[in-house]
């Protein structure tokens, strides 16, 4: 395994320390709970927004803490939901009079941990609501399954409720907005390579030089099916064919488009893919209101990308356009 | 009588904890086939905490001891395993609370309570390709063996064998819970990490079970 | 080769089209010369700043065109300096009354092309100056060599002159500022993997599972030496030991730090590395005034990172702090 | 007389262009050893333009023809090769300008002019491990052969052989110019891409040289 790393067990803590050292004025770091939080949180005039989930998805979510986005993130280890006490202690520390909104990607482990944490918090008299994000169309949703995964689309929920919270929206209002954004957001992912978790030291699965995985999540697990590599034009079709009929997105719709890198793919390829998708959407009469190209929610060093579409309305587009100040990419 | 019971409970917990740490790599590989590979890491890190504070855990009785361990697990193990295993220990502890003369039947009842806890917490059931698919047959076998009059060591050995067979059998199932379920049909053909992990722990108990 | 790509010969044009489609209001694309330029350029109240160099370094430089940075970038093919006419046509199109500043990383091919272009432009009566950037300490500088390479440190020159140009600085002033920033900027790079140029279809060189290349540039060529993989702590020492004595950077200095990803390394690892470097600088009495962690100047999909230090003074720090609006990473 | 000269010049340019396109992959591999691998791509793309417009190029005389080709190369070939090769063709064209009865000596003089142009443009010299280290010995051999009275075909063959030998010999040199120079001592042991490319082109000329 060739990474910039020391002891694999210290991968997450050392990364978090780096984030803290890079943002001394705006962020605080609480090592005991893998917590990165705004230096000015809690703010009693604003609902506190906390995101859980595991590590390995950076910049999600520890690097998207800041004005207009999250108040705090307390990830578990790589690909593991945070243990209960990370969440309960974080809620205690950041609870505001206006309440706490917990953003959770829909995974068994995260669900259970945050549901337990919500019980604990309420017992402590904290006003708290939990919002589950499940934008991944690769997963068939049925009562027999755990439901869809929350993946890169999480960003849009985070951004929208983050912006609304800055403007003073209350907890109920934020839940309404978050559920609305989640309900019009769809994502599909493709992996070109497997990722290597620090603790494992080798790729999670074997993939041939000419093979790709279609329908992957953000935890390095294999996707729905394996296929031969195909040109970017065809990959764009695979992604759109999975996403468009699902909502469905139709001619006349105005959308936000995210071409998200999974960690090991350079931005040059992402923009190439974006261009193709943009043109295909045009042909279908779907106009792009906002676009996002880059690494937003990764799977460690996996080469690959996911496509997210959000159907915009005035409210959502307005919130997405609001400013945000977060740790990453300062010019 | 109590001291023995407690000693036995401590032995079981310590064995599970030590073996989970020892098997970190193997458990991780099991979870990597169709899962995300963190099962071994999560259990190992969590049980390391249990072992670190082992001697300071409240030993009022076996029930209390197990409940304390449950809290340590839930607060230190991430992923799905934290809540699942934490709940299991919590329920087992609850069913033994105040009991200072634990019979074989009590032990079985405690394990059944753990199963109910897992099902509720995980909204899962037999056939979903989870550790339940090894745990339940294992308990059934343990119960039958004890009722047939086998002594503990023999019964635990039979339980381990049943767990191993049931774990192997999970490879024919399609995962309906956990990360593995996202791969759908592709989960068929490989055993469930949690089920196999449980079998390995049961076998370790059988191998090291102290003579009465 | 597994990339998001169609025809390798169209890799650069298709990427550029994606950038243009993603920024319809702010950028224009001229396919004939691989040119991405500000929609509002030329602006006769401002010196026009143009960056050349090859492709494969994205976001440098086609994605750093925008207010406060570049007016245009006309890259050649992957790792190839632009042909003469790309530059001459770009200069013709974007020339402003206040003149044109050409930013060029110091490579033989780029030097020659831009020197020829400068002659042509002057012949056409355009006020033009060329600024060569050479921040790479991995290369021994001597009269027998072609001199040092320009690598990730280019960003700081670009940012400083870009900010000054917005405020109306004239050509002579911009050259002074650019040369000053370049003179206090030092970079050293390390590769964990080789990169795969689209036209070649396979990695440029073989590297063992436990090997790394020390002292690499940004064109996928091997570095100064090969070494066994080492922990991030030791890598930080290798980078600092090469950079610090070179200027030298000394106790009491205030610096800008850039931990730049080479394309295939996730930002989690970059922040981990940043944390280590930040602490080592502290120990040496060198304080971090500004920090930059992410992909700024890449070598296609190469896994690796470079460290850049810039010795700050009031003027430089002020210019780096100025706002900029560029194509990438919009929140 | 002129027609023959022009035909000969066209033949040389077309052969170089076609062979550069045919050898794209090999030239790229040569440049990948210690360089950045784009040598083959740059030459191929550039000469594709030359071939595309080949028939429309101004043919007033060989000198003019070469000068026009030079401009096409410089505007369409990137990297170091664009300016280097463009300058070479420009200088050769210049030295033949207005000459409508090109002798062997004139051809040699044109090649010498190209060398001077490359040296000036590249601020390079013999021993820097560049294409010059194949080109110069090749020209010396061509000149000697022609002076010895060999006919063109023979002389070109000898030139090609000399170019090949000289190109092979560059592997003992340390690169002092071009990307390869950044690897320092590590450039020793592999041949220079430009030098070997030149040898390959010279050999193609020898193989296909038309009988007078
Ligand atoms: N809903 C559930 N109910 C019971 N057990 C489950 C459930 N989901 C997963 N498991 C068990 O947990 C194991 C995976 O544990 P772990 O890797 O920690 O979870 P995660 O999927 O979050 O990575 C599976 O092999 C399975 O035995
Ligand atoms: N300064 C120079 N003078 C003459 N020839 C040079 C010089 N630099 C490089 N070359 C030749 O050019 C070849 C590389 O061409 P190319 O790959 O297009 O350049 P780049 O190094 O820009 O990628 C080298 O093999 C060498 O023969
Ligand atoms: Mg997990
Ligand atoms: Mg797992
Ligand atoms: Mg090149
Ligand atoms: Mg080259």
Bound molecules: adenosine-5'-diphosphate, magnesium ion
Number of strands of chain B: 0
Low-confidence stretches of chain A: none
* Gyration radius of chain A, rounded: 19 Å
Fold and architecture overview:
The complex is a heterotetramer, with two copies of chain A (331 residues) and two copies of chain B (212 residues). Chain A has 331 residues and is an alpha/beta fold. Chain A has helices at residues 11-22, 84-94, 108-123, 154-166, 171-183, 232-243, 267-283, 314-321, and strands at 27-30, 35-38, 48-51, 66-67, 72-73, 100-105, 128-133, 185-191, 211-214, 225-228, 254-261, 287-294, 304-311, 325-326. In chain A, the strands form three sheets. Chain A has a six-stranded mixed β-sheet, with helices on both faces. Chain A has a six-stranded mixed β-sheet with strand order 10-9-8-13-11-12. In chain A, strand 1 (27-30) and strand 2 form a beta hairpin. In chain A, helix 2 (84-94) crosses helix 3 (108-123), helix 4 runs antiparallel to helix 5 (171-183) and helix 6 (232-243) packs across helix 7. Chain A starts with 10 loop residues before the first helix and ends in a 5-residue tail after the last strand. The mean pLDDT of chain A is 95. By secondary structure, chain B is mostly helical. Chain B has one domain (3-207): Serine Threonine Protein Phosphatase 5, Tetratricopeptide repeat (Alpha Horseshoe), CATH 1.25.40.340. Chain B contains nine helices and no strands. The site of one adenosine-5'-diphosphate has 23 residues of chain B, from helix 3, helix 5, helix 6 and helix 9.
Supply the key terms:
heterotetramer; A: 331 residues; alpha/beta; six-stranded mixed beta sheet; globular; B: 212 residues; mainly alpha; Serine Threonine Protein Phosphatase 5, Tetratricopeptide repeat; 9 helices; 0% strand; binds adenosine-5'-diphosphate; binds magnesium ion
Would you summarize the structure shown here?
The complex is a heterotetramer, with two copies of chain A (331 residues) and two copies of chain B (212 residues). With 331 residues, chain A is an alpha/beta fold.
């Amino acid at each position: 395994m060739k990474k910039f790393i020391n002891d694999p067990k210290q991968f997450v803590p050392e990364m978090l320390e780096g984030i803290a050292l890079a943002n001394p004025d705006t962020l605080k770091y609480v090592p005991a709970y893998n917590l990165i939080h705004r230096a000015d949180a809690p703010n009693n005039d604003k609902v506190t927004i906390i995101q859980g989930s595991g590590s390995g998805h950076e910049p999600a979510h520890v690097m998207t803490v800041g004005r207009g986005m999250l108040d705090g993130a307390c990830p578990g280890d790589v690909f593991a939901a945070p243990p209960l006490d990370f969440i309960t202690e974080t809620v205690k520390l950041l609870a505001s009079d206006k309440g706490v909104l917990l953003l959770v990607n829909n995974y068994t482990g995260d669900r259970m941990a945050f549901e337990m944490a919500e019980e604990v918090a309420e017992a402590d008299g904290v006003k708290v609501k939990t919002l589950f994000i499940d934008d991944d169309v690769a997963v068939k949703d049925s009562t027999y399954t755990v439901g869809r995964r929350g993946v890169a689309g999480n960003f849009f929920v985070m951004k929208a409720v983050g912006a609304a919270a800055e403007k003073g929206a209350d907890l109920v209002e934020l839940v309404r907005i978050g559920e609305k954004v989640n309900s019009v957001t769809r994502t599909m992912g493709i992996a070109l390579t497997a990722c290597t978790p620090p603790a494992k030291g080798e790729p999670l699965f074997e993939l041939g030089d000419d093979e790709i995985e279609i329908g992957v999540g953000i935890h390095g697990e294999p996707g729905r099916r394996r296929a031969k590599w195909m040109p970017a034009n065809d990959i764009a079709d695979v992604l759109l064919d999975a996403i468009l009929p699902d909502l469905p997105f139709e001619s006349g719709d105005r959308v936000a488009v995210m071409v998200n890198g999974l960690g090991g793919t350079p931005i040059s390829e992402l923009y190439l893919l974006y261009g193709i998708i943009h043109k295909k959407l045009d042909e279908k009469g779907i106009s792009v209101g906002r676009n996002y190209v880059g690494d937003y929610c990764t799977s460690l060093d996996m080469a690959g990308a996911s496509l997210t579409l959000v159907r915009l309305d005035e409210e959502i587009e307005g919130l997405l356009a609001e400013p945000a100040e977060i740790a990453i990419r300062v010019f | 009588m109590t001291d023995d019971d407690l000693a036995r409970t401590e032995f079981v917990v310590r064995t599970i904890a030590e073996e989970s740490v020892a098997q970190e790599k193997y458990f991780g590989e099991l979870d990597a086939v169709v899962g995300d590979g963190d099962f071994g890491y999560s259990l190992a890190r969590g049980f390391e905490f249990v072992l670190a504070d082992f001697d300071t855990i409240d030993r009022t009785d076996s029930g209390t001891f197990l409940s304390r361990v449950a809290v340590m697990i839930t607060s230190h193990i991430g992923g799905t395993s934290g809540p699942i295993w934490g709940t299991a220990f919590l329920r087992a502890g609850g069913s033994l609370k105040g009991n200072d003369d634990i019979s074989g039947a009590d032990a079985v009842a405690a394990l059944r309570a753990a199963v109910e806890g897992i099902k509720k917490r995980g909204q899962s059931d037999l056939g979903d390709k989870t550790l339940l698919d090894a745990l339940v047959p294992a308990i059934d076998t343990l119960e039958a063996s004890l009722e047939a009059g086998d002594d503990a060591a023999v019964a635990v050995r039979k339980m381990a064998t049943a767990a191993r067979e049931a774990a192997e059998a999970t490879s024919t199932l399609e995962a309906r819970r956990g990360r593995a379920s996202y791969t759908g049909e592709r989960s068929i053909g490989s055993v469930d990490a949690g089920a196999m992990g449980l079998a390995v722990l049961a076998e370790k108990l059988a191998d090291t079970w102290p003579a009465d």
